[in-house]
Each structure stands twice: as structure tokens, then as C-alpha cells.
Amino acid sequence: VPTLTVAQNIFLTREYRIGTGLIDDREAERRAADLFALLDVVVDPKAIVGDLGAGQKQLTEIAKAISQDAKVLVLDEPSTALAVSDVERLFVFLQKLKAKGVAIIYVSHRMDEIARIADRATILRDGRHVITAPLSELPIDTMIEHIVGRRSKGLSDVERGVAVKGDVLLELDNVSGQHKPENVSLTLHRGEVLGLAGLLGS
Q: CB–CB of 18/71 below 8 Å?
């Protein structure tokens, strides 16, 4: 809920209360801080969720999930909005949960993550079950083969063409907005792919 704080979102419908029955936000903030300490990440429990970047919103959802002392934890693409350092901390924490007997379903299209943290993998293609096997029996090239339905040749069967830059279709010269961007200049040619990159949340 974007208008509530991080702590209020984590304990939504499970609010801590004082003796009079009123909601105890201070206790929720303290418990939320403890959860983020367990994850070894920095998120302000008092911050309004609508003001957070994508990564901190994701961490808030993860904290909410683990706050319920779940026996089964389902994480669907949890790393997509996280910085590399936060992903590493998440993996360490998942290993701790696993050691405590929590069953974890980790959904991801990132093969390197699956190879690092999973014991077994299930591969789906077009919504249908293809295979479930221990990771030791599923090297990455085999996983890719099951995902696409055929053995990948990489780029060995692709004929290399000659790239030709065409006319200029778009040109920006020191373009700035009210907040961002600032002084952006670029030129885009016909027949060209131009990538724009920035830091997480930018």
C-alpha cells in the first residue's frame, strides 16, 4: 500500500496493538528493523512505501513474507529489482532459512541464480511440466535445451551480416527535464539498436 509506511505494510492485517486496542506503530517499526537486520539490508521502517525505489519495495515484500514464519516460501523473480549486493545478502538469508527447514520455491529466468541456490529444478515450457531433476543432472546447457525445446547451437548457425548505419532518425542535444534527465545527448540511426543504461531505480 503506497501510502503506508514500510512497517505498516509488513504487518498489514497483523498489526501490533497496545492494551487499549490501538495500533502500536512503534512496535511494528522495531520488529521491521529486526527483520531487515536479519536480511542484512538497510530499509527505513518509517519510510512511506510510495517514496521507495523498486529495490527497497522488493525487500519490503521479502521482509513481509519472512515475518509470517512461513514453512514454505515462494519467491517469484525476487532479484529483478535488487542491487547485486542485496541479491548476495538475500541468498545468504535463504540458505539460513533452508537450514531451518523452510521449503523454498525460487522462480527465476536467471540460470546462474538457479544453479547457485537450488537443490532441484523444475522446468516449464508453454505452461507444461518438462522435467524435475537434481541440479547435478541439469547443467545450464541442458536446462536451456529443455526450456527452448531443442538443443541450442548458440550463434553457430547464424549467418553474420554486415551492419549498415542508415540516416539519423533521432538526435538529442543537451536535453534536460524538470527533475531528470540532465544534459542528455544522443544520436539514433536507422537500422541501429541504441541502449540506454543507468543505476538501479533511475
A: no
How far is residue 183's CA from residue 13's CA, in Å, rounded to a whole number? 46
Burial 91-117 (b: 16+ CB within 10 A, else e): eebbeeeeeeeeebebebeebebbeeb
What would the grid cell of residue 161 be?
A: 551480416
Cα separation of 141 and 158, whole Å?
18
> Environment class of residue 32 by beta-carbon count within 10 Å: exposed (0-12), middle (13-18) or buried (19+)?
buried
Q: Which domains does the chain have, with CATH numbers?
A: 6-118 (3.40.50.300), 163-192 (no CATH)
Nearest to 132 by CA among 178, 49, 47, 124: 124
For residues 59 and 201, the answer to whether their CB atoms sit within 8 Å is no
Q: What is the pLDDT of residue 70?
A: 83
Cα dihedral across residues 160, 161, 164, 170: positive or negative: negative
- Grid cell, residue 66, equals 519472512
Spatial contact of 5 and 11, defined as CB atoms under 8 Å apart = no
Beta pairing partners, 166: none
Q: What is the pLDDT of residues 40-84, one digit of tens each?
A: 888 999 999 999 888 888 889 889 988 988 899 899 988 887 888
CB neighbour list of residue 27: distance below 8 Å, 6 or more residues apart: 16
- Rounded Cα distance, 37 and 130, in Å: 39
Q: pTM higher than 0.70 for the full model?
A: no
